[in-house]
Amino acid sequence: MKKRIISVLLIVGMFLTMLPLSVFAEEPENVVYVGTQPVSEEPLSFGNGTATYNPNSNTLTLENVTLGNNDAHQKSIADAKLEIASIYVESFSKGLNIELKGENEISLPESNDGRSYGIFGDHGPIRIFGNGSLNITVGDATEESCGIWTEGVISIEDGATVNVTVGSKEEKSGKSFGISGHIQVDILDGANVTVKSGNATDKSYGIYSLLKGIKIDAATVTATAGNSEQGMSAGICSDTSITMENGAHVTATGGETKAEENGSYGIFAKEDITISDAANIVATGGKTEGNEASSAGISSDKNIMISNAKEITATGGEATEKNTDSFGIGVAGNQHIRINGSMVTATSGKAPNSIGINAVDSTVTIEKKYG
């Protein structure tokens, strides 16, 4: 019996020696830059305000902070280009909480060679909360320009007011996003968010998420996209699902597009769009000039489910080229549109195929009357 126990211990010991040291290492602490300076528990002055970081709660408190054109952290990326951000966090999985107090301003000029961000999160989530406000203005960049960006989740909540403007009327970025959360974007609990992406060579999205979708719950959102030369334009865009509920007030507008098969949408999702519980939505597509480039207020590659919403107004824009559609609300083939107890107005624009509700090879169910 003793020999058997010793043998087991030897095997376990050999296994542990094969593991990399990173398995036992503690996760590195956040490194947070506000402007060009790493922040700590000691307050740093910016304009008439202060920025303070609590490493125990991973909370950055901004109180009446003003970050100007020269207040940006720079990091070299591929091909000798720069990645610049007014607030930069190497967050690993811990993420960053940003508490807003008073009125805070971020202003970042255009970048002729690289990427520009108002707030940049390396990997973890970014949560913005508090009774203050944050205004972010970011100029154009050759590769990508974005107001708030992270590979994790972006959550804006608890009554926070966030205004984002990206790009200028005269210039354009490679890609332009107002808010981009790689995993997910949540806007919740009385938050008031206004975003505008800029004109772009590639895609331009007001709010964008790639993996797990966008949720707007009991919040007010206005999302406007810029024009795009070679990509799609959408006020709100998700590669998965979009949910708007509990009295959410959403206004989403797409910009103009010129490329083939790249449409303009107020709201677009590759998976289900769900609108419910007294939500009030106004969604408008922009003008398209490319072949097979549709314009729509609300569009999904899967299903659109509207239940007990207050009022939905969806309007398609003009689609000028052949084989193009304009529709207020539409889904891809073999999907479903369900409207239950909601007031819905769907209007198409001028186009070769102009349809209020587009459900070719799909089904439309209209159930309980509104009110």
What does this entry look like structurally?
This protein is globular. It has one helix spanning 2-18; strands spanning 31-34, 37-38, 44-46, 49-54, 59-63, 66-67, 73-76, 82-90, 96-101, 103-108, 114-121, 126-129, 133-138, 144-150, 153-156, 161-166, 175-181, 184-188, 192-196, 204-209, 214-217, 220-224, 233-238, 242-245, 249-253, 264-269, 273-276, 280-284, 295-300, 304-307, 311-315, 325-331, 336-340, 343-347, 353-358, 363-366. With 371 residues, the protein is mainly beta. The protein is built from 1 helix and 36 strands. Strands 1, 2, 7, 8, 11, 14, 17, 20, 23, 26, 29, 32 and 35 form a 13-stranded mixed β-sheet that branches. Strands 3-4-5-9-12-15-18-21-24-27-30-33-36 form a 13-stranded mixed β-sheet, with no helix packed on it. The model is unreliable at 21-25 (pLDDT under 50). The longest helix is centred in the first third of the chain and has 17 residues, at 2-18. The protein is 5% helix and 50% strand.
List keywords for this structure.
50% strand; 5% helix; 371 residues
What's this entry about, in short?
This protein has 371 residues and is mainly beta.
Shape: globular
Per DSSP, the total helix count is: 1
Helix content: under 10%
Rounded to the nearest angstrom, the distance between the terminal CA atoms is 77 Å
Q: What's the layout of helices and strands?
A:
Elements: H1 2-18, E1 31-34, E2 37-38, E3 44-46, E4 49-54, E5 59-63, E6 66-67, E7 73-76, E8 82-90, E9 96-101, E10 103-108, E11 114-121, E12 126-129, E13 133-138, E14 144-150, E15 153-156, E16 161-166, E17 175-181, E18 184-188, E19 192-196, E20 204-209, E21 214-217, E22 220-224, E23 233-238, E24 242-245, E25 249-253, E26 264-269, E27 273-276, E28 280-284, E29 295-300, E30 304-307, E31 311-315, E32 325-331, E33 336-340, E34 343-347, E35 353-358, E36 363-366
Parallel strand pairs: 5-9, 6-10, 8-11, 9-12, 10-13, 11-14, 12-15, 13-16, 14-17, 15-18, 16-19, 17-20, 18-21, 19-22, 20-23, 21-24, 22-25, 23-26, 24-27, 25-28, 26-29, 27-30, 28-31, 29-32, 30-33, 31-34, 32-35, 33-36
Antiparallel strand pairs: 1-2, 1-8, 3-4, 4-5, 7-8
